[in-house]
Specification:
about 650 residues; alpha+beta; Heat Shock Protein 90; Ribosomal Protein S5, domain 2; Four Helix Bundle (Hemerythrin (Met), subunit A); 5-stranded mixed β-sheet; 24 strands; about 35% helix; elongated; binds adenosine-5'-triphosphate
Length: about 650
């Protein structure tokens, strides 16, 4: 072997080697990513020179091969790329590579040890973190080029010799340091390739097998991808997870390059929105699992890939957050996500509604956190409603109708086209402005809502029976969201169905009540007094009203909106479940026959002299019972309450059967 040159690499930072060797990267493993990236670049460059006609050799079957020699303690990375001439080795390795390493280290030191997102682009040099000797064996594609062999033991001294190599391309061989021998394990190398190089666009071969996926769907045009392709990638990146609801393909070249696919997963109530799940890539090379600094906070629940060469990766994470390009990229991503949702709302409402349970939480979260996003999505915010849209004939809609077929008198069943705004169970979804407009004449700027369909069923029914439309605001984010909506629409007030009864539910045209000359009280006043005495709960405010609907219960517990919200907020701050407030309203429905009977019963008892008569006792017991039943519609009983309730129920029934005999 002829020594072509022996020399000293010119570097300005004296201590570059110890820094590289020691601890520039906490993760020494990234050296492999750097070497494979260089190999991929070399193959891409060859393709380019072939395209310009500068090279007419065979460029088919490009590949990168990784080989381990345990005895020699070497790891090598070979490519079928462009190769290097002796002059290029001197220029690119001795000068460019070393000076770019120098530059990198200066930048790195300037960050004051703060975490850097990718430790990206140190390049060829990073081999010295794990190797005591690095060799380059290379043959350039250029006509008449001679193969060369470069050796360096990590000191600034290098040796350049001629080589017996006959195939175009480059082999980098590392003789590993004694404490870096883990890189002689096939499984370790496979794992590193899976992590960093899985989507690099060239097959990587080890022991005769391709060990990377080598296609990155996000770099393809969306037109070339099927639904299955998108789902495939998701399953690959997030195995054993439920299928995503929808996805957004990012694809822009100007004013910055961003490619990627973001998926909306099904959200769980316990989702940690501060922990990102989006993977950051740079030119198909994996950089990080965390890109909180790049993605707007509200997009954190999304999953998938963002690939951009315009995100600076060698600055500290905090500098990244304030970087202008990064901010612009974040805005772009948010806008694309909003556009995708709007498109779905416009083009496939049924699908939008199907995904709403999860996507809705996300949209609400986004609206709360990002003003621009809020503006983008405010028109597509929907709410499940009790509203039933009339059919053309004005009747309630039925999913199926019978029609007579044209060729005879056979009746057949055909499905009517379902309303665009209903889900599979026929439940209707509306926007807030549609709600307000529809109900303007009956209750302008007031929105009735419920937070728990089962617990508030009585109240919902009461509203429905009077034709009042109720919205379901029952996701975990809705407490905040209601306040947010009220700030946004200052004229609109949200009232939970159990907070206050709307005037429309109360009988106003009833005749004036007669005052009983014996007691000097109206019947309503007597009923109120009866309940007050029987319950003896000063913090429960007893109110009497005559309710309109026939199906209304004898009594209801109401929790005034402002008070309940305060209670909810306190519970939220203390991170505990809200206790049922002791201060509440018991609304007694004087129109109900049970209350009428109760009044008669207690009146009968007043006639009796002194002590408490059996009728008075019974009336008292029934008052308790009516109250308990009303409470039950609001909350479950605790053990003590349940015991009392069962005991009293038995007691009341016994008394009633005694009376009936
Ligand atoms: N496998 C290879 N085949 C051909 N040329 C190579 C190879 N590896 C490195 N080089 C040459 O050496 C130069 C320096 O490599 P190095 O990895 O240090 O930096 P880089 O690839 O230019 O940039 P980066 O810092 O992003 O990796 C490259 O620009 C390239 O010209």
């Amino acid at each position: 072997m002829t020594v072509l040159e022996q020399g000293t690499i010119t570097i300005h930072t004296e201590n570059i080697f110890p820094i590289i060797k020691k601890s520039l990267y906490t993760d020494h493993e990234v050296f492999l990513r750097e070497l494979v990236s260089n190999a991929v670049d070399a193959i891409a460059k060859l393709k380019m020179v072939a395209r310009t006609g500068e090279y007419s050799g065979d460029i088919s079957n490009p590949q990168i091969t990784i080989a381990i020699d345990k005895d020699a303690k070497t790891l090598s990375v070979s490519d079928t790329g462009i190769g290097l001439t002796a002059d290029e080795v001197k220029k690119y390795i001795n000068q460019v590579a070393f000076s770019s390493a120098e530059e990198f280290i200066q930048k790195y030191q300037a960050t004051d040890g703060e975490a850097i997102i990718g430790h990206f682009g140190l390049g060829f040099y990073s081999s010295f973190m794990v190797a005591k000797q690095v060799e380059i064996d290379t043959l350039s594609y250029k006509e008449g080029a001679e193969a060369v062999h470069w050796t360096c033991d990590g000191s600034p001294e290098f040796k350049l010799e001629d080589s017996a190599r006959t195939t175009r391309g480059t082999t980098i061989t590392l003789t590993l340091m004694d404490d870096e021998l883990e890189y002689l394990e096939t499984s370790r190398i496979q794992q590193l390739i899976k992590t960093y190089c899985d989507f690099m666009p060239v097959p990587i071969i080890m022991d005769g097998e391709t060990i990377n996926r080598h296609t990155a769907p996000w770099r393809e045009s969306p037109n070339n991808l099927t639904k299955e392709d998108y789902l495939d990638l998701y399953r690959y990146l997030y195995p054993f997870q439920e299928e995503p609801l929808l996805w957004v393909h990012l694809n822009t070249d100007y004013p910055f390059i961003v490619n990627g696919i973001l998926y909306f997963p099904k959200l769980r109530p316990d989702v940690d929105v501060t922990q990102g799940n989006i993977k950051l890539f740079c030119n198909q090379v994996f950089v990080s699992d965390h890109c909180e600094e790049i993605i707007p906070k509200f997009l954190m629940p999304l999953r998938g890939v963002i690939d951009s060469t315009d995100i600076p990766l060698n600055i500290s994470r905090s500098a990244l957050q304030t970087n202008r390009t990064v901010r612009k990229i974040a805005d772009y991503i948010a806008k694309k996500v909003g556009d995708r949702l709007k498109e779905l709302y416009r083009d496939n409402r049924q699908e939008y509604i199907r995904c709403w349970q999860d996507v809705g939480t996300f949209i609400k979260f986004g609206s709360l956190n990002d003003d621009k996003f809020k503006k983008q999505v405010e028109e597509i915010l929907i709410f499940r409603s009790t509203y039933k849209p009339p059919t053309e004939s004005g009747e309630a809609q039925t999913p199926e109708v019978q029609v007579q077929s044209e060729d005879g008198d056979v009746w057949e069943e055909v499905k009517t086209e379902k309303s665009l705004s209903t889900d599979e169970q026929g439940r209707y979804y509306t926007t807030l402005s549609e709600y307000l407009e529809r109900n303007q004449s009956r209750h302008e700027n007031r929105v009735f809502y419920c937070t728990d369909e089962a617990a508030q069923a009585t109240y919902i029914e009461l509203h429905k029976s009077q034709g009042l439309e109720v919205l379901f605001l029952d996701s975990f984010i809705d407490t905040h969201f209601i306040s947010f909506l009220e700030r946004e629409h200052s004229e609109v007030k949200f009232l939970r169905v159990d907070s206050e009864l709307d005037e429309t539910l109360i009988e106003k045209d009833k005749p004036a009540e007669i005052v009983d000359p014996k007691t000097n009280k109206t019947r309503s006043e007597q009923i109120k007094e009866l309940f007050e005495k029987s319950l003896n709960k000063p913090r429960v405010n007893i109110r009497t009203e005559s309710l309109k609907s026939e199906d209304t219960p004898p009594a209801m517990v109401l929790l005034p909106e402002a008070m309940r919200r305060l209670q909810d907020m306190t519970a939220l701050l203390q991170q505990q479940k809200a206790d049922f407030p002791e201060d509440h309203i018991l609304l007694v429905n004087t129109a109900h026959p049970l209350i009428q009977n109760l009044a008669n019963l207690s009146q009968g008892s007043i006639i009796q002299e002194g002590g408490s008569s059996p009728s008075e006792e019974l009336a008292k017991m029934i008052c308790h019972h009516v109250y308990d039943l009303a409470l039950m519609a609001q909350k479950g009983f605790d053990a003590e309450g349940m015991k009392d309730f069962v005991e009293r129920s038995n007691h009341v029934l016994t008394r009633l059967t005694e009376r009936a005999m």
